[in-house]
Design goal:
Number of domains: 2
CATH topology of the largest domain: Alpha/beta knot
Number of strands: 9
Radius of gyration: 22 Å
Strand order of the largest sheet: 2-1-6-5-7
Shape: elongated
CATH architecture of the largest domain: 3-Layer(aba) Sandwich
CATH superfamily of the largest domain: SPOUT methyltransferase, trefoil knot domain
Bound molecules: adenine
Structural class: alpha/beta
Helix content: 25-40%
Order of helices and strands: EHHEEEHEHEEHHEEH
Largest sheet: 5 strands, parallel
Distance between the termini: 38 Å
CATH class of the largest domain: Alpha Beta
């Protein structure tokens, strides 16, 4: 039996998480197959006063509001279990990549803490296990990053994709980009040109095909992502 992954997402937009995860794609499939549970934890329920406030003005002045650490902490305590890995989503975190997806796919309990773009009180950093950014750009909050990471992680878990091999050859899994793929038609007439599938791929010669693909993957990686080539 494949183990179920539990993901809790601390957010002010629980419907957004539910709508996305329940609607389509690999997360929906995983939920239906009992391999995944994604539960938003509504930060608002821990808010203070009549308005259930979760944020306040920054000490020292400045624009915008800052999420209170005591409120975030209450939500984290509610969401996590002993085995949970608690991840804060922030553009200041370590940049997410396939290797991190692989590492996180070995955990069975993940808690994502979504900041809002104005920020969160610095002191909450002491109560998370790691901080992740999905790229060098600023989003309005951590909800999309949490879903991006959930999908990248979920597709690596057993029982999700048809064949284990389907994640073995893909881009980044061996530290480089994937080789180019072709399908029918073998000769594609377009714009007055004949675009052909490379001949070696139709020979059935496994060794030559493997060599061809490996060379193409190397060449493509060197050209497009020299940073991956070490
Ligand atoms: N929150 C806002 N922008 C983000 C980013 N790029 N990665 C992770 N969390 C974020």
């Amino acid at each position: 039996m494949n183990k179920k992954l539990s993901i809790k997402i601390i957010t002010l937009f629980p419907e957004f998480i539910n709508n996305f995860a329940d609607s389509f794609g690999i997360l929906k499939k995983a939920i239906l197959n009992n391999l995944l549970e994604i539960k938003p934890v509504n930060l608002r329920q821990f808010g203070i006063g009549e308005r259930q406030a979760v944020d306040d003005r920054p000490y020292g002045g400045g624009v915008g509001m800052v999420l209170r650490p005591d409120i975030l902490h209450k939500a984290i305590k509610k969401a996590k279990s002993k085995k949970s890995k608690v991840i804060l989503l922030t553009p200041q975190g370590k940049k997410f990549n396939q290797q991190t997806a692989q590492r996180l796919s070995e955990a069975n309990n993940l808690v994502f803490v979504c900041g809002r773009y104005e920020g969160f009180d610095e002191r909450i950093r002491k109560f998370v296990d790691e901080e992740i950014s999905i790229g060098d750009y600023v989003l309005m909050g951590g909800e999309l990053p949490a879903l991006v990471i959930s999908e990248a992680v979920m597709r690596l878990r057993p029982g999700i994709l048809g064949k284990i091999e389907s994640t073995e050859n893909e881009s980044f899994s061996a530290g480089k980009l994937e080789y180019p793929q072709y399908t029918k038609p073998e000769v594609w007439k377009v714009g007055g040109k004949n675009l052909r599938v490379p001949k070696v791929l139709s020979t059935g010669h496994h060794k030559n095909i493997a060599d061809f693909r490996s060379k193409k993957a190397d060449k493509r990686t060197k050209k497009r992502r020299p940073d991956l080539f070490v």
